[in-house]
Amino acid sequence: MWTALDTWRRNTLQLLVSRYASYSHELLPERVWIMAMTAQRTTPAMSGPLLAVLALLAAAAPLSSDMYLASLPMIATDLGVRASGAQLTLTALLLGIALGQLAFGPLSDRYGRIRPLMVGIAIAVVACVAAALAQDIWFLVGARFVQGFAAAAGIVIGRAIISDLNAGTGAARAFTLLLTISSLAPVLAPLLGSVLLAAGSWRSIFWVLAGIFAVMLGGVLLLVRETHPPHARDKAALLAAGDVVRRAFKGGLFPAYVLQFAFTFGVIISYISASSFVYQNLMGFSAIGYGAAAAVNALGMMTCGLVSVRLIRRFAVRRIIAAALTAQLIMTAAIFVLVLSDVPAIWAALPIFFAISCTGFLMGNTTSLAIGTVRQAAGQGSAVLGASQFVLGAIVTPLAGIGGGFTAVPMAILMLGCCLCAGALFLVSGRIEARMTGGT
Predict the structure, then answer these.
(1) Reported pTM
(2) 129, burial (CB in 10 Å: exposed 0-12, middle 13-18, buried 19+)
(3) Domain for residue 5, yes or no?
(4) Rounded to whole angstroms, how far apart are CA atoms 425 and 439?
(5) Which parts of the chain span the membrane according to its record (predicted)?
(6) CA 424, CA 291: separation in Å to the nearest integer?
(7) By the 8 A CB rule, do 261 and 269 touch?
(8) CB of 153 within 8 A of CB of 268?
(9) Of 259 and 201, which is predicted with more confidence?
């Protein structure tokens, strides 16, 4: 009987939250909010539909970047710029995503998760339309920057929502599962972009992106509920959250995880930035063939993410990361050697596949470790994590194309260098963690 009563209580409180919270927080007393959030934490909060919407939000970055990669050579020709000029649109996107997370993370801590999320996605729709209408490279660069800035709302706030609802091993599994599901985006986006490119022009890609962001907005309206209650949003709480982040930086563990995460992403973005030129110009793939190859690489990353979700139940998160970093280092070193050797470029395709696949074990697990150190300031912590990722991406992107569209050497150097940096930071975080826990 008591179990039935407790279940009824939790369900009633959650119904109150879902019915009223998105419209007027003042309708619910703070005590009811606290009880409701406690009830949500003791029940399966991550429903399938909610996880699907959060995964779509997390996919904003790969959808925005990967879908139009095959069109970079066409954009360069159509707008009369060099390969590096076309790649500047990707740099602007990544820089916008970085700065947008720094803005939307604190805003979500102050004003709740829902309102900043809806505003950001709505602006992203408009920016995609502007990109589709661009007539010169600088207008396209500006539209891509705004799109990235606005799309960052979904990325950073989605992570904060997961942190609101999960902790510990549950958070690691939730983050990894989220990133694994969102990995469908880099699987499907290159193929979809290649098909759109073959059927029309590069502009059609941005019209489709505008539609995808509109679907995201509808999903948020229908399925996402507020997870950051009013009592946690006042100015004092926001200042306290900032203190949490500052203390985490002083401790050293949080920045070590943040930089490790950023350099792991650096491996991916080094490949993404140069892949359309490497696969099409050097390996001889068509636009459709490149899309298929990029999809296979992303599918490998997704598969490893699914395996990681299982492994977390049996092995420590740091042990999984250590094994994946070791494997990725071997693969990026192989890419470097093959690119510098006098062998056909296609030989590098297999180690590229394995190097990218390894990130499926790394991104979600590293995210959980980083956010876990600043759970009281999940929005700001998530913003710092994501901003570092895309700032590094914005730096790496033009470097990957510095040799032009007919060499893979910059890509190979950057992939190996970023992997080495991620490995070194992982060792540093281990030492800091051991010191904090009294280990040797």
Answers:
(1) 0.71
(2) middle
(3) no
(4) 18
(5) 45-65, 85-105, 117-139, 145-162, 174-199, 205-224, 256-279, 285-308, 320-340, 346-371, 383-402, 408-428
(6) 33
(7) no
(8) no
(9) 259
Q: What is the CATH number of the domain that holds 352?
A: 1.20.1250.20
**Is residue 14 domain-resident?**
no
Does residue 257 contact residue 366 with C-beta atoms inside 8 Å?
A: yes
Task: State the Cα–Cα distance between residues 41 and 312, nearest whole angstrom.
Answer: 20
What is the length of the chain?
A: 440
Q: Is the dihedral of CA 73, 76, 82, 84 positive or negative?
A: negative
Domain that holds residue 347: 47-436
Query: Mind listing the pLDDT tens digit for each residue in 131-146?
Result: 999 999 999 999 999 9
Residue keyed to tokens 């360069």: 76
Per the structure, the count of domains in the chain is: 1
39 domain-assigned: no
Query: What single DSSP character describes residue 352?
Result: H
Average pLDDT, the chain: 82
d(CA 291, CA 298): 10
Residue at 190 is within a domain: yes
- CA distances to 95, 144, 400, 401 from 91, rounded to whole Å, are 6, 9, 11, 11
Please state the φ and ψ torsions of residue 316, each to the nearest 5 degrees: -65, 145
The tokens of 336 are what? 């470097």
Residue type, 331: M
Q: What does the block give as tokens for 12?
A: 């009633």
